[in-house]
Amino acid sequence: MVPPHSRDPATHFQKEANSMTYQTPAKAAAIAALLGSSAFAQAPDLRGDIGLDSGAALPEGRIAIYLKDPATGPSGMEAADLYIQSSGKTDRIAFTLAPDEDWDLTSPSLQIVARLEREDGWLLARGSARPEAGSQIHITLYEAMYR
DSSP characters for the chain? Predict the structure, then answer.
């Protein structure tokens, strides 16, 4: 056996680096288990689409999309996480929402809310859906103001 002080430093460090590569996932998993699995988890993107309950084309306007959890957050209007412009020519609009890391996507009361507003701010339609892990989200907007 070669004494540790007489080993080639480059070979020694390469072996340590290789062994750390294999240990790192196991160590990370152990730390995550101790601290809670959400400690290192990044919230996944939420993907879905929005349409009117009647199936008609979405009116021209701005769609504000945000997450709301009545159990933990304020009950008033939330700041929008995403805005999409509706041209008035399509019946469904797809979206991708990247929630902040501090949102608990497993909360049973969490909702994704969509509001369709005219350019002057009048609410035309509103809808919400519960995000389900790994599945596409479909938000149905219900008319709030009759034209």
Answer: ---GGGS-HHHHHHHHHHHHHHHHHHHHHHHHHHH-GGGTPPPPPEEEEEEETT-PPPPSEEEEEEEE-TTTS-SSPPPPSEEEEE-SS-SEEEEEE---TT--TT-TT-EEEEEEE-TTS-EEEEEEE---TTS-EEEEEEE-S--
Domain covering 46-143: architecture:
Sandwich (2.60)
Q: Among candidates 142, 130, 141, which has minimal Cα distance to 46?
A: 130
Token representation of residue 59? 């009116």
Assess contact for 48 and 139: CB atoms under 8 A: yes
Residues 92/52, Cβ–Cβ less than 8 Å = no
pLDDT in tens, 30-87: 444 444 444 445 567 889 999 999 999 999 999 999 988 887 766 545 667 889 999 9
Q: Delimit the domains of the chain by residue range.
A: 4-39, 46-143
